[in-house]
Amino acid sequence: MSVKQNDQNFVSMLLHVGAEVNIPNKAGDTPFHLAVSLGHTQCLEELLESTNYQLGQPQPKLSKKNENGETALHIAAHRMNLEAVNLLCRAGADVNETTLHQGDTVLHIAVNEECMPIIKYIVEKTKIKIDHPNLAGNTALHMSCVVGGKGSVEICRFLMDNKANPYKANYIIERQRMKEQEGTKLKGTSELVEVKQEPDSEPEDEKTPVALMLSERASSTVNSELRMSTEENNGGMEDSEEDSEEDEDSEADDELVDFHGQTSFDLASNNEDVSTVLEIKV
């Protein structure tokens, strides 16, 4: 109640007499969550002041999550409250702690809110893992390429300056169906499907942006693979020039399905400004 009323003196007095600060309310919010949510930064400062705690008194558990799966630090980033972020980090809040439902770190959230002061603080002043993926495999750099529906050149450039990896692929798989047409290039349509995959694992055949850009130039290899598949389906037909030509004609509509995760280059492909930043910094 004292936190809700923004009564920092009463908060300090309660702590000195041994008040328990880690007990959540019905919504799972501790006094730390409430202080940040309400913007009561002075109360938060009192809650984090080590001299307010007696010997043997339970210390603040800043990694505790509410029913939304967020810590006080996550809420501070959502509120774009740099002062609260600073207080929590100095008190030992884990910047690499993730939200329960999306797996976002405080950096993901700050990028999504396009809050450069918090982004700079987290990257420059803490031990954030800049390429840490969330549950969809997206890093902060992935998000910077599409944030706000248009991407952010400023955020992208800053993250790249601090060694973010633009080649890291997320876990969103792009399915490309490419059909061979006589005398034409391979054309494709794509749809997105989510693949459940361990965050630290990546498919061995995952394609880099360079490989993707070269895919259209690899038509001869694709043609060869299609011919091999056709021959197997026809019961091991002999490899003659005449039969190969017949197989190509009869199987012109065969589909080749190609799977790859999306890199930051992929996400920025429709944004010339962001793409230019990625290319220059690599």
From TrEMBL:
Asked if the record carries the keyword Repeat, the reply is yes
Keyword entries, A-Z:
ANK repeat, Repeat
Ranges of Acidic residues composition bias in the record: 238-256
Instruction: List the residue ranges of the region (Disordered).
Output: 181-282
Keyword Repeat listed? yes
* Top-rank taxon: Eukaryota
Q: Repeats (ANK): which ranges? A: 27-49, 68-100
Q: Which GO terms describe its biological process?
A: cellular response to tumor necrosis factor; toll-like receptor 4 signaling pathway
Pfam families from the entry? Ank_2, Ank_4
Query: Biased composition, Polar residues: where in the chain?
Result: 217-233, 261-274
Q: Which InterPro entries match?
A: Ankyrin_rpt (IPR002110), Ankyrin_rpt-contain_sf (IPR036770), NF-kappa-B_inhibitor (IPR051070)
Q: Which GO molecular-function terms appear in the entry?
A: NF-kappaB binding
A GO CC term attached to the entry: cytosol
Its function, per the record, reads: Inhibits the activity of dimeric NF-kappa-B/REL complexes by trapping REL (RELA/p65 and NFKB1/p50) dimers in the cytoplasm by masking their nuclear localization signals. On cellular stimulation by immune and pro-inflammatory responses, becomes phosphorylated promoting ubiquitination and degradation, enabling the dimeric RELA to translocate to the nucleus and activate transcription.
Q: Which PANTHER family does the entry mention?
A: NF-KAPPA-B INHIBITOR ALPHA
What is the similarity comment for this entry? Belongs to the NF-kappa-B inhibitor family.
Record protein name field = NF-kappa-B inhibitor alpha
